[in-house]
Design a protein that fits this description.
Blueprint lengths: L13 E6 L23 H17 L3 E4 L17 E3 L4 E3 L10 H11 L4 E4 L11 E5 L2 E6 L5 H10 L6 E6 L16 E5 L2 E4 L6 H9 L3 E4 L13 E4 L2 E5 L3 H9 L3 E5 L2 H6 L9 E5 L2
Parallel strand pairs: 1-2, 4-5, 7-8, 10-11, 13-14
Antiparallel strand pairs: 1-15, 3-4, 6-7, 9-10, 12-13
Length: 290
């Protein structure tokens, strides 16, 4: 029987992915300032842009699974990577550091259970972890960012859940940056592109992570300062040397292409620029081929 789940890589060919289409109404998005968005969302355009991302994913050959449980009051719920992550042994359900996102975690657990993916465990109490702080360098090496959204207790709980299942689990400290009110996940500053190549924003990459990249012979492509605010470091690899990223970062796109990387671009003014979440944020990768 073919595998239906297994995801301990960020660059192996993507075969199956879960997305959560936006379902909010014009009334729901009146809370946009409470969620920290930059401007009032356009509901119809948000849906159109999300449809465009889904079509790109399908064009790459991935099976796209649409979440069945809508949560229109939880405006960040489209960022389906954050409530948890899938491993070869099953799923780890996180516990959101952002209070306004609480409630997304059990919904993800129900979706994954519906898809036949076992739940290894769920974080709770004072344990926090968001999937934007979870980085696979290879199937045996997991790196977790210690941020305002993912704390030490959350890291320790993940270590317990994955004991005997993942050989190397590291924690790296994220920068304060602009404080608690701005998202700085680990995947805000690095995106693996191939087994030996990563897209990085050097000023905010933790030193121990740079050392891990160097020790593994992983080369880097640098995002310029001018394109960090437009989320250029956030690129979803759908196969080695093939990535999906937002339109509007021409320097980074050129650097990727000069390195031999195929780049697919989606329109993301509503999805990414307004809500501060890129292609990796809007996808919960269920199965990769490695």
């Amino acid at each position: 029987m073919a595998r239906m789940y297994g995801n301990q890589s960020m660059v192996a060919p993507l075969k199956r992915v879960l997305v959560k289409p936006p379902s909010e109404s014009a009334e729901d998005v009146e809370r946009w300032q409470e969620f920290g968005y930059h401007f009032a969302p356009d509901v119809d355009e948000t849906r159109r842009q999300h449809d465009g991302l889904v079509n790109l994913l399908r064009d790459t050959g991935a099976e796209v699974v649409l979440a069945e449980e809508s949560q229109p009051a939880l405006l960040d719920a489209i960022f389906v990577t954050d409530p948890g992550f899938v491993t070869d042994a099953g799923a780890v359900i996180g516990h959101m550091g952002k209070q306004l996102r609480r409630g997304e975690e059990p919904a993800l657990a129900r979706e994954l259970t519906r898809l036949g993916i076992p739940i290894l465990g769920a974080l709770e109490g004072n344990e926090t972890l968001e999937g934007g702080d979870v980085l696979w360098l290879d199937p045996e090496t997991l790196v977790i960012g210690r941020s305002y959204r993912t704390n030490d207790a959350g890291y320790q709980r993940v270590r317990e859940l994955l004991a005997g299942k993942v050989k190397n689990i590291y924690q790296v400290q994220m920068a304060h940056w602009h404080g608690r009110d701005e998202i700085l996940h680990l995947l805000s500053v690095i995106s693996p592109v191939a087994e030996d190549l990563a897209l990085v924003y050097p000023p905010l990459v933790p030193v121990p992570l740079y050392e891990l990249l160097e020790a593994r012979g992983i080369r880097t492509i640098e995002v310029p300062d001018s394109e960090f605010a437009t989320h250029a470091p956030n690129a979803l690899a759908v196969a080695p040397g093939h990535v999906i990223t937002m339109k509007g970062n021409p320097i980074t796109a050129r650097r990727l292409r000069d390195a031999g990387v195929t780049v697919w671009e989606y329109e993301g003014r509503e999805l990414t620029l307004n809500r501060d979440g890129g292609a990796t944020c809007m996808t919960c990768c269920l199965l990769r081929d490695y």
